[in-house]
Amino acid sequence: MIKKVFKWIFLILVLLFIYAPILLLVIYSFNETDMIGQWGDFSFEHYLYLFESEKLMKTVGQTILLAAIVATLSTVLGTCGAIGIFYSKPKSSALLSGVSQIPVINAEIVTALSLAVLVSAVGFLNKNSYVPLVCGLMVLCTPFVVLSVIPKLKQMDNNLYEAALDLGASPTQALFKVVLPQIMPGILSGFMLSITLTLDDYVITAYTKPTSFDTISTYLYSLNKGGATARIKAAFWAVTAIIFLIIVIVVIVMNVMDRKKKVSQ
Amino acid sequence: MKLRFSRKQLCIPYAVFLICFVIIPMLIIVYYAFTTPVYDSLGNVTGLHFSFRNFLDLFQKNTDGEYVRLANIGRSILIALATTTVCLLIAYPVAYILAKTGIKKNYILLLLFIMPMWINFVLRINALKELLNLIGILKKNNFWNYFNTVLGMTYDFLPFMIMPIYTTLIKIDNSYLEAARDLGASPQRAFLQVTLPLSYPGIVSGITMVFLPSMTNYVVSTMLTDGKVSIVGSLIEQNFLNGQWNTGSMLALILLIVMFVSTWLTGGFKKDDAAVARGGTL
Known about the structure:
The complex is a heterodimer of chains A (265) and B (282). Chain A is mostly helical and 265 residues long. Helices cover 81% and strands 0% of the residues of chain A. In chain A, helix 3 (54-87) crosses helix 6, helix 5 packs across helix 6 (131-155) and helix 7 (158-166) packs antiparallel against helix 8 (171-200). A two-stranded antiparallel ribbon of chain B has the order 1-2. Chain B has 2 domains: 1-33; 67-277, MetI-like fold, CATH 1.10.3720. Chains A and B meet through helix 1, helix 3, helix 4, helix 5 and helix 6 of A and helix 1, helix 2, helix 4, helix 5 and helix 6 of B.
């Protein structure tokens, strides 16, 4: 009994550590004050400011658009790569997955600096073209797509592909109608992973982005360095609260859907 | 045979991509690390020549006679060691409790622990900063600066440690434990000699996922200490901002070597765990 209580106290303390900062911002986002620690009246002022500020809304929009583009490209490239790696000869397969592992375990700043160095060394790569930014984030995301897809390929019954071919499907048809549906869960989780990785990234974005372009991360970090107005900082409390709310909703929806699927099975 | 060939070909775009954006950039890092720029009389860079200066610069003293750069690397390693230890000490019990007690509710409980990871980390560290400010320990003195850096890193990387350990623990066949107990082992001994060794792969993955990032994630230390605590990442950022590619490349090369050596020492951790650590399998 005492052991059980102890376990729960421990879990709750860790959860408190994880959620206290976020909840603090969520609470203050509904307060008219610009300073945490000072208590004012309940208000939506920070939300209004956020939605009316052109710069902030543009930054949020750009961040989401960038994540969608990078995740889509990474998912296509990574899925092809995973299928290719899986069916290659052992030697080339090992080499490719070995190289593909480097960005995963490398310190992000090394990846970022190596890309910045590439841009400085290769004359025609221009940061303002967004190519370094998108490719840089793809370096971060694509290996994770590969890592998510390969286990699904391993689980797949290889005879299905052969059977499709025997029944007259072309390799392309077999790929799209047999292989892809089987590995879809892996592709989807790779896509979601790419979205979260891109939304979360600071370092690679900062090292490869055009000077005038900002994501939520780079904008907030630059505010921290310079003297930002309290209002903009407070608007970020609202951003935090909204993102937190979205994540909670997504997690709940996914859980409910998961349970329904299990029940119907 | 012709049919198989068409599937193999799918990896060509990815291979080209990896060569262009992973291999070549790393080779340039190595090249830059062992060269220094040559300037003409106007101060423009006209070329690069081979030298060990970037390496020797690491051992340079400042005007006060301190080895600034060496101290910085040492400090980063200490911060990373502290963060990894704290993460492990918190994450192992959490993962253990979640994996061993009850069955159904745990999935949601686990989600509770890793959900914050999906909030942008700059926003999260910003939130932590406000909380520390409220408590009154933000930028108070040197001790609290170091404390807050390790706290911030732990806050950021804790899920990376929880996830791989949880997935290894949950896969351990319970009959091993029952066998140990049947053969007369005490619960403590059964844990130390059965569960713990079987969960080593998860621990190794967790350490790999936490150590290097906490050595280099300068965003955390800069935001929480206003740059008072400088780590390797901060040095590289300075070099990047000043366009000192060669000095920055040497530091990056050292981090690359640390990465390869640690992967080699741990016998290459289970790659899938990297995706697991980021919540990829949920």
